[in-house]
Design a protein that fits this description.
- The complex is a heterotrimer.
- In chain A, about 30% of the residues lie in helices and about 20% in strands.
- Chain A contains twelve helices and twelve strands.
- In chain A, a hairpin with a 5-residue loop joins strand 4 (about 60) and strand 5 (about 65-70).
- The termini of chain A are far apart.
- Chain B has three domains: about 15-25 and about 445-590, Aldehyde Oxidoreductase, domain 4 (2-Layer Sandwich); about 30-135 and about 190-275, Aldehyde oxidase/xanthine dehydrogenase, a/b hammerhead (Aldehyde Oxidoreductase, domain 3, Alpha-Beta Complex); about 165-175 and about 180-185 and about 280-445 and about 595-740, Aldehyde Oxidoreductase, domain 4 (2-Layer Sandwich).
- In chain B, about 25% of the residues lie in helices and about 25% in strands.
- Chain B is built from 16 helices and 31 strands.
- The relative contact order of chain B is 0.14.
- Chain C is of the alpha+beta class.
- Chain C folds into two domains: about 10-95, Beta-grasp domain (Ubiquitin-like (UB roll)), CATH 3.10.20; about 105-175, DNA polymerase, domain 1.
- In chain C, strand 1 and strand 2 form a beta hairpin.
- In chain C, helix 3 runs antiparallel to helix 6.
- The chains are: A alpha+beta, B alpha+beta, C alpha+beta.
- Chains in contact: A-B, A-C, B-C.
- At the B-C interface, helix 1, helix 2, helix 3 and helix 14 of B face helix 2, helix 3, helix 4, helix 5 and helix 6 of C.
Amino acid sequence: MRSFTYTRAGDVAEAVNEVAGNEEARFIAGGTNLLDLMKIDVMHPRHIVDITRLALSTVEDTPEGGLRLGALVTNADTAYHEQVETRYPLLSHAILAGATAQLRNKATDGGNLLQRTRCYYFYDKATPCNKREPGSGCAAITGFNRIHAILGESEHCIATHPSDMCVALAALGAVVHVTGPNGERGIPFAEFHRLPGDTPEQDTNLNQDEIITSIELPAQGFADHYAYVKVRDRASYAFALVSVAAGLLLEDGVVKEARIALGGVAHKPWRKPEAEALLHGQPATAENFRKVAEAYLEGAKGYGHNTFKIELAKRAIVRALQQATENKA
Amino acid sequence: MTMKTDYIGKPTNRVDGRLKVTGQAKYAAEFDSPGLTYGFVVSSRIAKGKIKSIDTTEALQLDGVLQVFTHENRPQTAWFDKSYQDEDSPPGSPFRPLYSDEIQFSQQPIALVVADTFEAARYGATLVNVTYEDAPFSTDFEGNREKAYTPEKYKSQPPPDARGDMAAAFASAAMQISEEYTHTSEHHNPMEMHASTAIWEEDGTLTIYDKTQSVQNSQKYIDQIFGLKPKDARVRSPFVGGAFGSGLRPQYQLFLTVMAALELKRPVRVMLTRQQMFSFGHRPATIQKLQLGASKEGKLEAVRHEAFGETSRFEDYAENVVVWQNVLYQCDNVAFDYKLIGLDVYTPLDMRAPGGSTGQFALESAMDELAAASGINPVALRLKNYTEKDQNEDAPFTSKELRECYRQGAEKFGWEKRNPEPRSMKEGHQLIGWGMASGAWEASQQQASAKALLTVDGKLTVSSATADIGTGTYTVMTQLAAETLGLQLEDVSFKLGDSALPDAPLEGGSWTVSSVGSAVTLVCDAIGKRLLKLARKVKDTPFATAGYDEVIFSEGHMRLRSDPSKALAVTRIMRSAEINYLEEEVTSKPAEKQKKYAPYAHSAVFVEVRVDEDFGTIKVTRVVSAIAGGRIINTKTAESQILGGVVWGIGMALEEESLMDTTYGRFMNHNLAEYHVPVNADIHSIDVIFVEEHDEIVNPIGAKGLGEIGIAGVAGAIANAVYHATGKRVRNLPITLDKVM
Amino acid sequence: MSNKQQPETIEKAAPWLPPKQSVRITINGTQHQLELEPWISVLDMLREHLQLTGTKKGCDHGQCGACTVLLDGKRINSCLTLAVMHDGSSVTTIEGVANGEELHPVQQAFIDHDAFQCGYCTSGQICSAIGLINEGKAKTPDDIRDLMSGNICRCGAYTNIFKVVQEALERSKAQ
């Protein structure tokens, strides 16, 4: 870990001002990923702005009937929040499928969105990685890529986004509210994270001098029919090989609306609304679920070690939709 | 005194338990000293080549950085590689830290940054600028199979000689199994990362707190290298945060810590990072070929077990992978081979049941394949081929209650209800499978010494330079000493982990209880004999003519065996003789009679798995492990040893895998997020059965050691259960979901 | 409070150490006033600056749980947070769990069930178990196993750790 200066921001404006114009400045809140990466010198900010004392720790109803999660609410407090548990159980389940009780007690909702990939090569400075060091190459494409992307990847990067929470937020269609030097803006969740393209060093469309202030959940929480299915190498404390967040609106066994997002398969939580639409108006049957799964994975590409994920993702979609159908609350 | 003093065979709480649950037990990196400095290791980026340049200027500019040691400025140390050999060195030329500009493996330590604070040292390490000259290398185990060689000298035993005519017997056998089994490298990953703290004492000597399984091995190592005398540097290790073999050899942090302390004349601490825990010693990958020929009824007629094991370019590490048929199954036509594949990696290192856990995975998988092919119950097949002697040594066993393990294990598990048909049990999306395997591990005894000091207040201190790596040494030795002299546990203390104490073997190989325990019992008997001499002189003594075998000790008293009410308090005997203390030191050695016998612990492991039919995820829902391990000294800590072994077996079977990227010559998943070991949610019901086994030959206390037998058959049993659940035979570990779905 | 530095001016010079800042923190009921560089984790503050070595470093990356402490009553990984961020906070470590000489029931249960071997993960396991009980979210045996999965025990004492937590939950329910 390199040396850095530390300051504690009193309000959002001050926080933004602290990082504005300083490419080497970073916010810290939970710190669970930033410090992890700083200790191995993969990230090395020279100025750290502590935002934990900002007034962004509340969960509030929105006028539109949704719920606003303050960026500094911890993952644990979000997952166990009564409103989240009852109205957005999909989100609650996804959060609890990730990390550990200790990490969830510290990690914040805003920070969860900004988690970096778990790619082995990103974490190891002895190997090339375009995300860590643009232009150095991607060692994963020809190396160990069992945990890597099968969708939306590029020749420069096949890393995945590691979050569970974000998969649920993508399915729910959340909006990320941010504040920067030029004021506030809302970013639809689907546009928050990026595909690697030729700039894999950029995980998100958040500007360096912008701060996440809240995450807004729309009114529809799919609380009656939802499932979060996570497939991983051990029963807990492991990142997803594949995960699926599914929400259904059902009427007499017919799907009115389907929401599906995949985790562990791409540089961002993966949604494909045109594939979801295949289910609309269709009966909730295994056969139809499999059709959607096939459509979802169309164009998926394996790199050897991770090729199994294509079929695994399909099966996980089917399982999640089945579970969602059955779990009428 | 009315307290009972019989402890052997009882579920006794750990005597060091209170220290551990209150955070007072101190490990190698937790000893403080005024002016303590911190070393941080810089590791090589490349796997092979030379350091072209190493520029420490910038690091030295950082406030707080005291020195950066590299091969260019390291102090003079021993020249010959022989001086770097330790008690566990395989044949070859040991690695010498900071010795030259040569890089022999990835993550080789190439510099030590020493600073006032840990953080400054860590920052300083990023400021050391290194350029390399790459050399061609290979870390591709499978790809170098053609270059496999027979070492001039095997570290352990050479593969057994062939007997009979394996080829002919196999060719004519009605049933033939011929398969290859593999597993990747694994890393020990004890919870405590390797660390050493060297402290200057006022008299100019060094006390070194080291994470090790042998303080004396560490001491000899640094004495040889730095030209120190035993009195100059004392190595201590009162608590060890797990090791599982990783502490059998002195690791490079010890060298670096002592070097820096001697050079800077300051106390120094070096703790490796978790990533650096992947830079020394690992369980070597193996490729194993098993051929079993049998009659239709399942009687073995031919067995061939061949293995390829990974080693480094500089040492020939080898382990006993192919020997296990000899002690488990009777067969007259057998052949064995074990070859090494040299790679540009650090030398592999014994890891819990080295050779046994891996060799038995292959053998027990093949036996299950034979059972399935011939339609014989896997337990019946093993009973049919049961051997009453070690066929390689042509020696009977000191004891072998393996039949009883099969019987009791099967009964507890409910094995008789098993439908032999794969995929015959299902619940929802879960395929359920039952599998079993046998296990064996050598129960050897090494020479060991112990000292005992009994003071007139009735307190006994026993000591030996052994270790407690979580195995329960403190507790078990205390129990043995207390029971031998009839004292309460509270009145006995056992000291270990100090190189100044009487000699003890490396803490490993499941031989600590048998070796050190025998010495402890012997030295307490020596005290007892002294007490008897004194007791004969006490006024109105009941012991005037008694021989030592006619007295017993219990509840603080010496008693006549024939009439325990005839007794004298131990304290009274000493007071009567006006003696303040009695001191004895003994060395115990394996008895001559043992040599004619084969000493082994055995196990039968029964496993239930639930496999998700779509995802291939595997959950081990039930394990029954029946152990024949001789006399059990402490049923509580003994059970923990087996529980731990089973958890290790689950990790080995399903999760553990060190991913070697052959392009960079580097293990890539060098952290605990991506190197998976079992977590709490992976572990469900585990039942441990200790089968009664009396053994008068194996060693004076009749205990066989339990550190390795617990893992021995587990991976095979799980692989067999997965086959039973899914119909899919996975022959390469770990059985990750992609191999099953 | 803001003490904005101008890092770019320092940047050009030789490598520099971060300036110390004052931290007021309560550990096991005792208030400490410390001057610490901001790059010191809570874990290293405890172990290296306060000699409270009961809290263990098992990976330093939040991947093992050995460093678990209770921060303002909640279990966290002390390796992944900076001491300066917790000015005004209260930390309970393994050294503060017992009531004087009397062990916390969870500590005693760890001994009675032999829920540890080498002891290195034990402090974290105990703090984590206490945190789990305080949280009150574990309803089923599988919940217990999952919610204790942030603490790796390489010795493999999981079944005994499970028993300790299950019993403690039953006790706390009975009360």
